[in-house]
Amino acid sequence: MGSKGVERRKQATPAQTPEGNVVMSFSFESYQLEEEDCQGKEIPDKGVLALSEPVFEEPVPDDRYHGIYFAMLLAGVGFLLPYNSFITDVDYLHHKFEGTSIVFDMSLTYILVALVAVVLNNVLVEMLSLHTRITVGYLFALGPLLFVSIFDVWLEKFTTNQAYALNLISVGVVAFGCTVQQSSFYGYMGMLPKRYTQGVMTGESTAGVIISLSRIFTKLLIRDERKNTIIFFLISIGMELMCFILHLLVRRTRFVRYYTSLARQGLSHSKDHSHNGNQYQVHHDVITEEVRFGNGAVGVSPTEDGSTETDYTGTSTYVRFDVPKLKIKRSWPSIKDMILHRYVVSRVIWAYMLSIAVTYFITLCLFPGLESEIRNVTLGEWLPILIMAIFNMSDFVGKILAALPYEWNGIRLLFFSCLRVVFIPLFIMCVYPVPKPTLSHPAWPCVFSLLMGITNGYFGSVPMIQAAGKVPPEQRELAGNTMTVSYMAGLMLGSVVAYAAYRFTAPGSGLHSETGLNFTRGY
Question: Where does CATH 1.20.1250.20 sit in the chain?
Fold first, then answer.
């Protein structure tokens, strides 16, 4: 009776009792009837069985032609593209703010503001809707790009000092918007199958590749530095608008609504059972005629194909309400509850949190600050542009490799992330001592940037992808936000170390010449 599949409910069959009454017998195949669907319906009489059609009745939506995956990849592009736009036009920055530490200042400003933003977003995750946070992030990212490109680059309305301050303020606003957006997206992706988290992280690297190629081609095709910088910023603005529009479209698709509602149902079940002790379920196995009582439904987590981990084949679930539910007014959680929720999640994924923090700490010690200061008498300003392009492209490759189906142990992942510390002395040897660097040939920083990019892409993505799978579905958005806090902490510490090293060496000969620039020897 219950072995024909899970797609439909069998027809009701009439049967007659000895007393002559006719009753209807129903058989449900592999269904768990959820009390969620009964919440908005009136229960006519006390003690009447409430039968409801479950959300699992529909077939699992398919990501046709991988359109959702592509949209999520572009979402990753959207929240790193604005910052990359500011730092990748390094030649324009060095020309306009000659002898200054503009790239270091931008990097440190971005990270400090971003850390505040990600902590704030982690608090607001239970107070503001996901869509609200993402929309505000896009608006904060687009505003400074438009303002700087029009009033500073094109119209040149500001003095050098004013423009310097304006660029740092713009980077700060971009940092706040993009980080709120980024942190929200990681929580968002925690509700979807794992491959979509990998898609978002690949999009981050794609942003770097797009911006690097955009800067190379605008600089090659247009000689005038001011004009090619304006066009460069306009391309970035167009890309950011496209990402925002795609987000608005994708969030309404049946695929996204299916998985996000599935995750939220798990959360609502856990909340309902903690507040309502009068509700119970009766599981009736129509094959064995066994009746089993349960104290509420347990949320099940979706697998990649949308199937559930709990099997109710051949069973019927009846939900009985002896007392109607009280309507509970929604209120913000207490600080104690928020800290407890984060503590519980952190205990499960602590190794993944440390792994992603160490990975980005090592990377930010070197990129973009130190790499932007490497010069060559033959290649001139082209060398830092090429090094950044190599890093962004190899980082993109590393994030694609992160999609390979391999399950890492948290401790082992942390160990390999720590091994990347070897890149710090290698890059230092490319710039020090100034008169004759130990590794003076420009091929050396290119090779090191290639290897650092691949390992950064891989070990920066795997912890984020796998951490969400270690917690129940209702905690995945919080896990994604918590991982982003660790990610931003690593970025901040790396930027502080890079900035401190620059400030320590800048006044003397150190890593910089009298003009504030370093040139490796020609070849």
Answer: 64-256+332-505
How does pLDDT run across 501-515, given as a tens digit for each residue?
777 655 444 444 433
Cα 77 from chain centroid? 11
Going edge to edge, which strands form the sheet with 279-285?
290-294, 279-285, 315-321
Among positive and negative, which fits the CA dihedral 457, 458, 460, 465?
positive
Q: In angstroms, rounded to a whole number, what is the distance separating the alpha carbons of residues 284 and 51?
A: 13
Q: What is the reported pLDDT for 266?
A: 56
282 bridge partner residues: 293, 318
Q: What is the DSSP string of 357-415?
A: HHHHHHHHHHTTHHHHT--BTTTTTHHHHHHHHHHHHHHHHHHHHTTS-----HHHHHH
* 15 Cβ neighbours under 8 A, 6+ residues apart: 22, 23, 24, 25
| 195-245 pLDDT, tens digit each | 888 888 888 888 988 998 999 999 899 988 889 999 999 999 999 999 999
**Residue 504: what pLDDT?**
66
- Residue 58, pLDDT score: 60
User: What is the domain class of 64-256+332-505 according to CATH?
Assistant: mainly alpha
In the structure, what pLDDT confidence band is assigned to residue 182 with cuts at 50, 70 and 90?
confident
Q: Which amino acid is at 402?
A: A
> What residues contact residue 218 under an 8 Å CB cut-off, 6+ apart?
228, 229, 231, 232, 235
Question: What is the chain's mean pLDDT, rounded?
Answer: 76
pLDDT digits (tens, 9 = 90+) for 112-164: 898 888 788 777 766 778 888 889 999 999 999 999 999 999 999 999 999 99
Residue by residue, DSSP assigns 145-173 as HHHIIIIIIIS--S-HHHHHHHHHHHHHH
At residue 280, what are phi and psi to the nearest 5 degrees? -145, 170
Smallest CA-to-CA distance from 200 within 153, 127, 155, 134 is with: 134
Say which residue the tokens 């401790």 belong to. Answer: 411
Q: CA–CA separation, 273 vs 268, rounded Å?
A: 9
Could you tell me the two tokens for 422? 């070897």
List the one residue out of 49, 56, 52, 25 whose CA is nearest residue 286.
25
Compute the distance between CA of residue 174 and CA of residue 63 in angstroms, rounded to an integer.
Answer: 32
Rounded Cα gap, residues 202 and 397, in angstroms:
8
